[in-house]
Amino acid sequence: MLKNFEKITIELSPIELEYVEFLGQWFMHNKGKENTVKNGDIAKLIKTAFDKKIADSRVRKVLQFLRTNGLPNIIATSNGYFYSDDIAEIEAWIISLKQREAAIRQIREKAEREVEILKFSKYARRQIAMF
User: Fold this and answer.
1) By residue range, what is the domain housing residue 54?
2) What is the pTM of this model?
3) Dihedral angle computed from the Cα positions of residues 31, 34, 38 and 43, in that order, rounded to the nearest 10 degrees
4) Based on the domain organization, do 27 and 60 belong to the same domain?
5) What CATH number has the domain bearing residue 80?
6) Looking at the structure, do residues 39 and 62 belong to the same domain, yes or no?
7) In degrees, to the nearest 5, what angle opens at C-alpha 55 toward C-alphas 92 and 17?
8) What pLDDT, on the 0 to 100 scale, is given for residue 115?
9) Same domain, 93 and 48
10) Number of domains within the chain
11) Which of 22, 63, 80, 106 has the fewest beta carbons under 10 Å from its own?
C-alpha cells in the first residue's frame, strides 16, 4: 500500500486476482500496438467477463500486479495499454519510465529540501524566542 493512497492501493482481493489471470490471457491474445486498450475499456472487459464493476484506480493496481508478476511488457502510453514483445517498443517505454521516475525523484528531493528548511526555520525561531 502507498501512504495516503491506502484505499486504492490495498492488496488485491481474490476476485481481482482472477482479473489478473483474465487480463494476462487477454493481453497475450491481443498483442501489439494495434490492440491498445484504455483503462475504461479494460473496466468494460472485466464487467463483461465477470459482471463486476471496477474503478479506474483498481484497474491500474491489477495491471501493476500483472506487470510485476508475469507480464512486464504491458506498455502504457497516452493512448492506453498494450502488450509488446517488440524490443524497440519496450526500450522506448523504458526510457519513458526512467523519465517519469526522474521527474518524481526531482519533486521528492525538492520536498525533502523544503522540509529541512522548515525544520531549520522552526529551530531558529525557537532559539531566538529563548533570548
Assistant:
1) 1-85
2) 0.79
3) -50
4) yes
5) 1.10.10
6) yes
7) 75
8) 92
9) no
10) 2
11) 106
Place of cell 488485491: 12
The whole-number average pLDDT for the span 116-120 is: 88
Q: What is the pLDDT of residues 38-90, one digit of tens each?
A: 999 999 999 999 999 999 999 999 999 999 999 999 999 999 999 999 999 99
Burial of 5 (0-12, 13-18, 19+ CB in 10 A): exposed
Q: Verify that 64 and 80 share a domain, yes or no.
A: yes
CA distances in angstroms from 129 to 113, 115, 117, listed in the order given: 24, 21, 18
Contact status, residue 13 vs residue 52, Cβ threshold 8 Å = no
| Cross-strand bridge partners of residue 75 | 82
CB 16 within 8 A of CB 52: no
Whether residues 72 and 35 fall in one domain: yes
> 51: alpha, beta or left, given left = phi > 0 and alpha = psi -120 to 50?
left
pLDDT of residue 122: 72
Residue 85: how many CB atoms within 10 A of its CB? Answer: 10
- Give rounded-to-5 percent helix, strand, coil for the chain: 70, 5, 25
